[in-house]
Amino acid sequence: MDQSRNPLVTPMEGGGASGAFPRSESMLTNSSEVLIHAEQIRQRYKRLQPKDALDDEKDYKTLVHTLAWERLSAIFKTKFVSDGRCRTGPAGLKEEQARRYFEVYGKNQITPPKKKNKWLKLLEQTFLGIFNILLWGCVAAEVALIALATSGGGAKAPRSMNVTAAGSVDQEAEQAEGEQEADYVTPIILSAVIVMAALLQWHAEQQAEDQMASLQKMQAAQKVPVVRIDKNGQRMDCEVDPVNLVPGDILFLEAGNRIPADVRILYCTDGMEVDNSALTGESMPEPRHTKTEPLSCSPTEARNLAFFGTTVLKGNATCVVHATGDSTFLGKIAQGIKSSRVKSTLEYQIEHFIHIIAVVAIVVGLLSLVANLMSPVKRSPAEVLQNSAAALFAQVPEGLLPTVTISLMIASEQMAKKMVLVRKIDAVETLGCVSVFCSDKTGTLTKGEMTVQDLAVPLPGGPAEGMAVHNREPGSLIFSNKLAQVLSDIALCGILNNGAECKMEDGKEVYSGSPTEVAILNACTQVHGGNSQVRNSKAKPEFDKIFEIPFNSENKWMLTVHGQPSRGRCFSILKGAPDRVLKFCTVSKDGAAMAKIEATMADLMAQARRVLCIAKRDLTGSDIPDGAKFEGTVPSDCNFPMGNFEFVGLYGIEDPPKEGVATAVVKAQKAGVKVVMVTGDHPDTARAIATRINILHGSEDAESDQLQGAEEFSVITGTMLESRVPKADNFTDEEPDELVTWWKKATQHTRVFARVSPIHKQVIVQAYQKYGYKGIGDICAMTGDGVNDAPALKQAEVGVAMGIRGTEVAKDAADIVLQNDNFSSIIDGIEQGRLCSANLRKSIMYTLCSKVPQFAPTLAMVFSVPEALTIAQVLLIDIGTDIWTAIAYAFQPAESKLMARAPRHPKLVKLADWGVGVYSYCYIGVLQALFCWIMFFSLPDMFRIMHEKGSAGPYTHDEKHTIIEGKTVYYWTLVMGQIAAAISTTTERQTLLTYCFPNMALNVAFLFEVILGLVAIYAGFMHGPFDTTSLALDYVSKPVIALVAIVVIEEIRKYIFRQLEEQGMCGWCLDTNPGMDGSSSSEDESQDEYGSDESSMEDSDLGYGGKKPLIC
Predict the structure, then answer these.
(1) Is 715 helix (H, G, I), strand (E, B) or coil?
(2) Can you tell me the mean pLDDT for 106-135?
(3) β-strand partners of 652
(4) What is the pLDDT of residue 9?
(5) Distance (Å, rounded) from C-alpha 807 to C-alpha 787?
(6) Would residue 16 be called left, alpha or beta, if left means φ above 0 and alpha means ψ between -120 and 50 degrees?
């Protein structure tokens, strides 16, 4: 390996570890010797594992927190200094050992998920996928038919056989050549459409991957201070890239550092705290110490360990690395989510649609084959095959693929404007189908930072008179400086008795220190008048800090002494847990005062506040030790008074909800989406936050009344889940009835899961997917930012990770990344997803409408009706105009009530279900065919020609001209009918009188259809290839009646259905979803005090009683 890369691989001479490495004085050149040393290292490392641990153990198992220093030193062959600080003298690994360990353990980085080559992905998106395969099949068949026709297939029948169909032999030959030229266009355009759609999707996803890569580069880790022993046995302090750390390395951490590997703490300052929220989901800082833990303590609960990816909040420490890369706790979780993602709902629905279209196309192709064989018009085998194939291909909606891609891209771009990065674009459509939103609390629903929300101080008459609780101003969310006089004591004490600091960096105020201390300092600074005023106050001699007892887990308080001992003026401030501080206060002897204080504390804690108490005492005369040498660490050994403190007040601290989250939750509930909190925090905290952001609505609402004895489901804890986890990786049909019944109730009623582990989060998502939606299974979205969220993110149909707070593991597992960590943005994304889905559905409906009038002339020829539409004209409609109009639907804005309906469940309501078939084939398609035939037979002599000559002829010159005019009129009427279909399908319910024509792309497509149709009629060069002719103004204007009539008929249908829907009797919605009772009150009556329909939704069997899904 390249020895110049880093110090780990520099060859050293001498200084090797005794015993384990007998040839450490030189580079190992013998391969067998290298293998022996590597195996020795591995065997020693196994001593850190429990006996039942496997070589490829998936769970995080280690005994390192239970072992004494001496044992760890022997296992790692590393040197510890007796006090554990390792700040002086030789310590750590020898360089040669570090190099060997690096060769055995590899880089300290989590193996990223394997990514496909981007060019291979492009090929897959172009040529694979069931819809692409179908389209490429059409292209191949067209090419084969062209080859068959040009190779002499027409020679099998005399040219004279075609005279009756088109006139003279010369005219027939000219028309055949024109049609052959037109047929060349079809496979070319279709191929271009497939390739361009694949390129668009590939480009969009590639851009998202590039943005992800740039985010990862921005979050590169800093070098770590490490101590090692050089070849001369001397101490060597160096800075090492985190990726080059190895087990046995001794490193130094301080507040603000991101922990670069899993470490055992050898030494730490008293009161050291770490932020484990990325792993556990709990927002409260966790203390750390150096004591050996018992065997009964799990590694994740051990307080002498710190984990890769977490952060030091307070204090500093000396640690030894015991696990790197994939062996870390974070790495174990990351390796557990590398399974391939299941198909998206869009992929399933497109596959379902293709199966339907394939059946329809084959049936139509066979009918066309029979009709051509039975037709009085004699055709060669090649012509019969070509006509049948063309009829089959005409049923394939060529515009669907680019419409899907462009719709998803537009939705992705709209979401990108709101800082939402869509990594997999079909996740947008799935987002629109989401019926349950499972969300982590810390950093997702809440800010992920501790904040003082309440300052409680005694009334002027003292605590016995009562407590005044002051909150942040609702609009600005700050403490007003108007309260400076009332809150002066609690603010000043909070500033002086504080371990946090505020510094200016790049013109911004940056706080550092323990989250709790930062929260108190920030609030007190606001009350005190700002940082400049704080600096002025702290600079005053009477406020000089002369002594401090830091917070520790034993005392649970922090004490500082301030003043000027030389003048005999000092005062002490005591801050900490109320039960520990109040016992030192004079107020503890006043029962009435204590009752008021305790009532205030109970009220704050009921709101999930963490309550801290602060008190002060003046020190004068004999209270001040000789020489002002204050000493002591606990009350018993302090050389100054630790009693008779004056109670100052209480701080109410919490991790508050993010701005806009409460509104976003209500918006989701109005859209028929359940929002569920899934957190590792305490149940009381979770319940309080859930109530404030409208996930729970208190004990007196309709939802609580529905529990009817099922109070255990109001908030479910991890302890309750322990015995209800499936034995397999997921729930199966063989689960016990008791378990199934419990989970069905839980998925119906529960809105908060608290004190849950990472595996619990994944199980909860699986339960909703299996038992939600009355056993059909919910479509789940999961939001989160920590490593603990990653398995659930991967399990959910839509995984949403936070971009700022989120770990790389979470982002890799997610489909969508919120770059600004704004939960509200993803709720807005639901509307984009629904709009995308609705537009795809409308596009399919529009495209299928023309299939009936296109196929009708083929069947009509069996009944002696002259040819009314040629293959070339069908292709001119499908490829020339319909495909672009279908794509224009991607730009269609939403209808007014899009978010007033329950989500469309893809298992119950497909993008193309029987409703679409009825609408397109049996309703609009029939209307189009009816008007086409009316206009066709409105031509003079058309009925006479049919009765006298039939479809075989022979025709006179005037009769041939009349038939060509009939074909042109039929084609033009169908163009008008398709414009009418496009106008009609722009809305499903809303009238065009209020919706109008907001889609400029679609308006341009209408204009293009008209222009192309007129060109086909009046341009001479189009007459031959497409068998058209110039029409009188009368025959051009009459088909406009078809356009108007179809639109008016559709408006009448929409009005009737709106009336039925208001009465809960929408005909297409009644029986589509089993369990949908269809009975609902008006929208206003079903809303609760928050404007949410969630209560009425719960009344139905599916949980969406008052809302109709997006079906018709």
Answers:
(1) strand
(2) 74
(3) 454, 611
(4) 37
(5) 6
(6) beta
Three-state DSSP class for residue 1094: helix
- DSSP H or E segment with residue 645: none
* Distance from C-alpha of 802 to C-alpha of 781, rounded to nearest angstrom: 14
DSSP H helical ranges for 336-477: 345-374, 381-394, 400-416, 427-433
Name residue, tokens 């391969």. 31
Q: Which two three-digit tokens encode residue 684?
A: 């009381």
Would you tell me how many other CB atoms lie within 10 Å of the CB of residue 1045?
Answer: 16
Mean pLDDT on 366-377? 75
Beta strand 798-802 pairing with 816-818: parallel
Q: Residue range 241-259: average pLDDT?
A: 89
What are residue 726's DSSP bridge partners? none
CA angle 943, 948, 952 (to 5 degrees): 100
pLDDT of residue 174: 46
- Closest listed residue to residue 850, CA positions, set 973, 962, 961: 973
Largest CA distance in the chain: 131
What's the gap between Cα 283 and its chain centre? 22
Backbone angles phi, psi at 584, to 5 degrees: -95, 0
Bond prior to 954 in cis (omega within 30° of 0): yes
- CB-CB contact of 1032 with 1074 (8 Å): no
pLDDT of residue 114: 66
Question: How far are the Cα atoms of 268, 320, 363, 1078 from residue 868, in angstroms, in the given order?
Answer: 90, 86, 21, 46
Residue whose token pair is 């009629």: 1017
DSSP at 113: P
- Between CA 980 and CA 1049 the distance in angstroms is 10
Given a cut of 70, whether residue 39 has pLDDT beyond it is no
CA neighbor of 48 nearest in space, from 72, 28, 25, 68: 72
3-class DSSP assignment, residue 1107: coil
**Helices 400-416 & 345-374, crossing angle to 10 degrees?**
160
Q: How is residue 565 written in tokens?
A: 């001992």
Query: Each residue of 940-970: b (16+ CB within 10 Å) or e?
Result: eebeebbeebbbebebeeebbebbbbbbbbb
DSSP 451-490: EEEEEEEEETTEEEEEEEEEE--TTT-S--GGGTTTTHHH
Question: 884 is written with which tokens?
Answer: 């672009």
Unique residue bearing structure tokens 């201070």: 225
Q: Which residue has the higher pLDDT, 99 or 552?
A: 99
Q: How far is it, in rounded angstroms, from Cα 415 to Cα 429? A: 12
pLDDT digits (tens, 9 = 90+) for 802-859: 888 777 777 877 889 888 888 888 888 888 888 888 888 888 889 889 889 988 888 8
Beta bridge partners of 468: 457
Span 572-625, pLDDT tens digits: 999 999 999 999 999 999 999 999 999 999 999 888 888 999 999 999 888 888
Distance of CA 958 to the CA centre of its chain: 67
Mean pLDDT, the chain, integer: 79
d(CA 822, CA 827): 10
d(CA 745, CA 733): 17
Cα 658 to Cα 827: distance, rounded to the nearest angstrom: 14
Hey, which of 579-593, 775-789, 983-997 has the most confident mean pLDDT?
Answer: 579-593
Query: pLDDT grade, residue 84 (50/70/90)?
Result: confident
Grade residue 701 by pLDDT with cuts at 50, 70 and 90: very low
Between CA 904 and CA 912 the distance in angstroms is: 12
Nearest Cα to Cα of residue 565 among 630, 610, 497, 659: 630
Neighbour-count burial of 627, counting CB atoms closer than 10 A to its CB (0-12 exposed, 13-18 middle, 19+ buried): exposed
- Across residues 443-450, what is the average pLDDT? 84
Q: For position 142, what pLDDT does the model report?
A: 66
Q: Residue 73: how many CB atoms within 10 A of its CB?
A: 16
Distance between CA atoms of 1022 and 1013, rounded to whole angstroms?
A: 10
Residue 1068 pLDDT? 41
Nearest Cα neighbor of 1068 from 909, 868, 900 is 909
